[in-house]
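Single Protein Entry

Contents — chain, fold
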Amino acid sequence: MSQTRRSAPNSRKLASRIALAAGALILLATGLWYWDNRETKAAEGAYRTTPVERGDIRVAISATGTLSAISTVTVGSQISGQVTDVLVDFNSQVKKGDVLARIDPSTYEAQIEQGTAQIASASASLAQARATLRNAELDYQRKADLGKQKLVAQSDVDLARSALDQARAQVNSSQAQIRQQTASTQTTRVNLQRTVITSPVDGVVLTRTIEPGQTVAANFSAPELFTIAEDLSKMKIELAVDESDIGQVKVGQVVSFTADAFADRQFKGKVEQVRLAATTTNNVVTYPVVVTVDNSDGTLLPGLTVNAEIEVSKRDKVLKVSNAALRYKPTANGTGAAQPPAQGPQRAGGSGITDDLARTVAELKVNPQQQAAFDAAVAAVRERQAARQAQVAQGGNSMFGGGRGGPQGMVVIGSGSGAGAMQAQMRQRMAERFQQDFAAFRAGLDDAQKQRWDAALGALLNAKRASIYRLVDGKPETLMVRIGASDGTATEVSGGGLKEGDQIITGERAKE
């Protein structure tokens, strides 16, 4: 009985001790968690970050220009004279052949009458010359016969021959005079027709520079009387594009523009021509780019100044990051040096290229057979990459051999004259490898699809690359990514194991 009483207090003491020990362990674990979390937050708080987002990037070039009709005809006068009638005004709709104005025809009518009289006089001279010719022919024939019989002197025969030649020459001269007068009269008739000025095209009169009673002088140059826009339902803009941007402008690109006269509207056009005739103004070189515009509703007017944007590139649903992340470089007073990613070496050829190529194939609208060939090629590429990563993990070399100064299996290219050659060699080998991998797929494409595929593959392999820094567990991790289109705020990035939502370092916070 007494022993039972003694064991109860001992049990209570043991339970109390166990509770105290458990509490101490909980406090210790809580303290360790708090301290670790505090260090992580402190490390993360040392950097400014921005997330990797998926969205669209639109790259556009800004330029200014002036609206005008696609075809504008200047109507002038080829003759001189006084304007008697002007039958159209500004904005008049005209058809081809419509009379625009008339010039006094009296001078040319008088010249035609004079020319007609001169032709009649020349015709009379021709008849007289022909009569003389017939008499000279008979006289020569008689004297030639008598000369053979020695009945007349040879000198008389020679004189008759000379008179015959003169008569023939006179006939030819009269005929020439008739032709000359006829041609002169025909020229006058043409000028008489030119006194009536007609429209050469269907269109609308933009300008008129003459009034009735005004004298037109066309002695040295043809005066401009009217300007006619052939068709205002189709218009054009001639943009002045800077030389630094002209390389991105291609025929067929979409152009959006606004005009001050219609500030609440945005209009669309299409690049029709990139002209080679450069213009230099204040040491600034620009190239003219012609944009065609549909003006079926007649809203736009010739001469309007427009502010246009040429859409040179549009990337849909791509990974993008703020441009500040591309400018960031770790400083000497940062929290620590950037570490290579723990998931394996960074190579230019990672799965990012195959993802980008998949988007290109989707745009090509391939058939099921072509899609199957592409999927098979992608599977082979990824299988080879997986095998290579396993080899690297076991201590082997990377795709192009072991590098210097980096982790095992990672290629590190330094700066200097050899770096450019090394990069060029890597790109060449990679291009050859991808051409082999996708040879069967490419063979099944048509010519247009092949052209777009080659351009896309070349752009990916030759894309610029840059280092960015991803924040992982409070520490920066170096990623080598491909740089794509940029809209000035964000830039397309791919490769390097980058994922949507990754936090990319844009700067370091000042230490307190």
